Amino acid sequence: MNIYDELKHNLADETLCAVATIVSGAANLGAKVLVYPDGRVRGDLGNASLNAEVMRDAQRLMQVEKSVNRVYGDAEIFIEVFAPKPKLIIFGGVHTAIPLTQFAQALGFRVTIVDGRGRFATRERFPSADEIIVAWPDEAIAQIKIDASTYVAILTHDPKFDIPALKALSATHPRYIGSMGSRETRKQHFAELRAAGVTDEFLATVHGPIGLDIGARTPEEMALAIIAEIVAVRYGRSGSFLSERSE
């Protein structure tokens, strides 16, 4: 399968990838490589060290879903990122999940609701959700494709759900994980997860308490804080005030 065919397959399969093409300044004009988030590379730019450097840059660009032109020595290379539609998995069909689903879909996310309690995960509560899964977290995660375009919000605020969800997610690589709960709750949950073999490296990636600090009180405000944090992570931003940024 050549690079073009593999790219077509990736687009159809919603697989995150990037294509780097030499656009000027080199004898092998038009040479391409196809790069994946895990570092796999298909193709050759004609130089092993250039391949490695472009691969590292492409990985960073895939993290922020950004395409750029860059110069490497005499060669100008266009790195184009092909990002699938982002996916938001919400654990817990609670009140905050309702506006969060609406906000996320307005921003182009595909939303999946997961709850082991059938009375919470219903079409009546989530008429527009792309998918509703009535299952415990570890069972649901086994059914869902989780990749670098996946964002996870754990809203259950209950150790019976939160701890199994985080334990199962520790074997995956989503772009974002946020978990509801106070800092004390987070400390207790993390202690249990460490005892179960979950690494500190994974736990350091979990955003909690979930959301930006906007003083949210209502379910709608909390949903706004959560989706704002997700967007900030998606584009590699801090979520601080624009007025405080230097030019």
Word description of this protein:
The chain has a six-stranded parallel sheet, with helices on both faces. Strand 1 and strand 2 form a beta hairpin. It is α/β, with parallel strands linked by helices. It is built from eight helices and eleven strands. The chain folds into two domains: 3-82, no CATH class; 87-234, NAD(P)-binding Rossmann-like Domain (Rossmann fold, 3-Layer(aba) Sandwich).
CATH architecture of the largest domain: 3-Layer(aba) Sandwich
Per DSSP E runs of 2 or more residues, the count of β-strands stands at 11
- How many helical elements? 8
Main pleated-sheet profile: 6 strands, parallel
Form type: elongated
Output the helix-strand order: HEEEHEEEHEEHEHEHHEH
Q: Name the beta content range.
A: 15-25%
Tag the structure with descriptive keywords.
35% helix; 247 residues; five-stranded antiparallel beta sheet; elongated; 2 domains; 8 helices; alpha/beta; Rossmann fold; 11 strands; six-stranded parallel beta sheet
Secondary structure: elements and pairs:
Elements: H1 3-13, E1 17-24, E2 32-35, E3 41-43, H2 48-64, E4 68-72, E5 75-82, E6 87-91, H3 97-106, E7 110-114, E8 131-133, H4 137-141, E9 150-154, H5 159-169, E10 176-179, H6 183-195, H7 200-203, E11 206-207, H8 219-234
Task: Provide a short characterization of the protein structure.
35% of the residues lie in helices and 21% in strands. The chain is built from eight helices and eleven strands.
